[in-house]
């Protein structure tokens, strides 16, 4: 699994925009703990591939009558990937148009941080998500590096890490360190979508993470076909006021959520036809 990640990072540093891998490895039948760790890694890759040469890689083959945790863990990760489809699709458009890969070595986003140069067991998924696959059992520590800035856990917004620093923690099999970079605009859908190709400009949640004073960030809402773009959203902070608005195209009913100081409690729903909302910090 670790060699697969190193190989993928090598490919994306060599001009490949997209990479994939066989969850659990191509040969043999991986043990349950490796399979579950690999499912987490695979779900946060540009392509998720349950495939092997001599065994079916479906999660229920790793469940028992009294323990369905493998299926539940994969369902959690795939649901997150479905919710993140607008972000991943927009990153894929960027890879197509610029050559910047979807899965990126950390140093591509932080070229002046020499601590990132040797990191081969974590990566950036697009410019906003840091993903740190786990290569240990669930009773041992794993560690990963967070570059400069404030990083908010995708799963638990109360967990905010200040970089540059190393994080050491024990990670359950149904968990994965996924951190959102500060000054990020993340586009997500509702839970339980059940598919990746939903209508991205309907019911979208626009998340703003730790926006700095004076900062302005934008995100593209994909149209869902080729490189079409349905809308562009911008978030700005000035004098403690954060404004989120549609600056190109249009969205149907959508919501904006502000994550600041470890809180995600600032939520506002925007009706169809309205083009923006403001938060006061």
Automatic annotation (TrEMBL):
SUPFAM superfamilies: (Trans)glycosidases (SSF51445), Glycosyl hydrolase domain (SSF51011), Putative glucosidase YicI, C-terminal domain (SSF117125). Residues 99-185 form the Glycosyl hydrolase family 31 C-terminal domain. Keywords: Glycosidase, Hydrolase. Belongs to the glycosyl hydrolase 31 family. InterPro entries: GH (IPR017853), Glyco_hydro_31_C (IPR048395), Glyco_hydro_31_TIM (IPR000322), Glyco_hydro_b (IPR013780), Glycosyl_Hydrolase_31 (IPR051816). This is Glycoside hydrolase family 31 protein. The lineage of its organism: Eukaryota, Fungi, Dikarya, Basidiomycota, Agaricomycotina. Residues 1-90 form the Glycoside hydrolase family 31 TIM barrel domain. Pfam families: Glyco_hydro_31_2nd, Glyco_hydro_31_3rd. One of its GO terms (molecular function) is hydrolase activity, hydrolyzing O-glycosyl compounds. GO terms for biological process: carbohydrate metabolic process. Coiled coil: none annotated. It comes from Tulasnella calospora MUT 4182. It comes from the Eukaryota.
